[in-house]
Amino acid sequence: MKAYTTSKRLFERSGAALAGGVSSSLRAAMRPVPLFAASGRGAVVTDADGNRYIDYLLAYGPLILGHAHPELTERIHAAMTNGYTFGLQHEGEIELAARLTEALPCAEQVAFSGSGTEAVMLALRIARSHTGRTKIVRFHGHYHGWSDAIFTAFPSADMKGGAASDAGGKTMPGTGGQSELALQDVILLPWNDAVALEETLRARGHEVAAVITEPVMCNSGCIRPRDGYLERMRELTRELGIVLIFDEVITGFRFGLGGAHERFGIAPDLMTMGKALAGGIALSAVAGSRELMRVVSSGKVSHLGTLNGNCVATAAAIATLDILGRNGGEAFVRMEATAARLAQGLRERIAANGFRGVVNQEGPVFHMMFIDRDAVEDFAAFSERDGALYSDFAERMLEEGVLVRTNGLWYVSTEHTEAHAEATLQAADRALARLAA
Ligand code: PLP
């Protein structure tokens, strides 16, 4: 048994001056205690008690190059020594913007901000200003940040409350203190359902500024779009003059440098990026056509943020792009192979230990769930999973030296090797056997 004595002691202390003892509500869900980190290197993180874990949380996604990647660290350090931020323009922004327009098929121009939430806020404003319409179509189970404009109750095992609140077709605030009025412009639809989308857009398309979607529903089950679904979404939005936004905060720089839209060969009008964009430094972006971005260039839409495009963040993103792009992007092939091996190994071990489960994998990300089904292809099916059982499994994995998110989503980085995958599968076997006992 591992001891979490120091983390427990620190968590008790942190609640005194830090509201809730954590800096993001999700972290409070970790059991047996929100862990305190001491250091990280490559695919391994060490906690305050000296316990070491193979890390698949990866800071909820940003650490595509693992922890403290030597080249990334060196380039961030070099940038910092010249001054971190000026509130003036600098050449790093020009270089990164140009590099992104080369890498992202849908991008002629980009705008930088600090978090995925802000990038989505900006994308929605661009869409509304461009179209002169106000309604936004979004989907059950997708997450687009926590702004008033778009945060609906989110059914996640590691998010408190509201689990079923957006499952019944009604758009409910995702948090206390959120304006319900802000959500009046949100039309909530089931995802992966081309008929529901077409019916709604044919009836109400004239009011709709944007359809926003995760191109793969990574936040709820890592569910792929059904064949033809994104294509139909693209055709309908184009026909009806609606801005199509792909929220690639997870998939950007993860499904290849060109993100999911390159992988699927479908160009949205706008995309958002965050998380992996700067390898673990806060940076996000909106990218799209020059025509759409004109509302920003003209000043019609305000784009604000004190630290937007700062030198440290742009240097980190350029370094991340360089590292991931080397040798024809072989890192993506490697990460995907590791994820596929893990996903298949977990499927086998779930069954071998007498459980029913599904592991949906796409690129270097997968979702493991305990569920009495052969496949999970939409949000309704995903909602049937046994979240409490998975949470028990995550706690046992921690004891076995593997850090996974309590809701079932796993990320693989460039630093995860075959040896890590093998050790992880052996740990999963032991954890499942203990769970079954
Ligand atoms: N969009 C998606 C698809 C996300 O997964 C997230 C975060 O998990 C966000 C937006 C919000 O990003 P951030 O947490 O950086 O505000």
Automatic annotation (TrEMBL):
Pfam families according to UniProt: Aminotran_3 (PF00202)
InterPro entries: Aminotrans_3, Aminotrans_3_PPA_site, PyrdxlP-dep_Trfase, PyrdxlP-dep_Trfase_major, PyrdxlP-dep_Trfase_small
Domain of life: Bacteria
Classification via Gene3D superfamilies: Aspartate Aminotransferase, domain 1, Type I PLP-dependent aspartate aminotransferase-like (Major domain)
Keyword Cytoplasm found: no
An example Gene Ontology molecular-function term: transaminase activity
DNA-binding in keyword set: no
Keywords: Aminotransferase, Pyridoxal phosphate, Transferase
Cofactors that this protein relies on: pyridoxal 5'-phosphate
Record family assignment: Belongs to the class-III pyridoxal-phosphate-dependent aminotransferase family.
Official protein name in the record: Aspartate aminotransferase family protein
Organism per entry: Paenibacillus antri
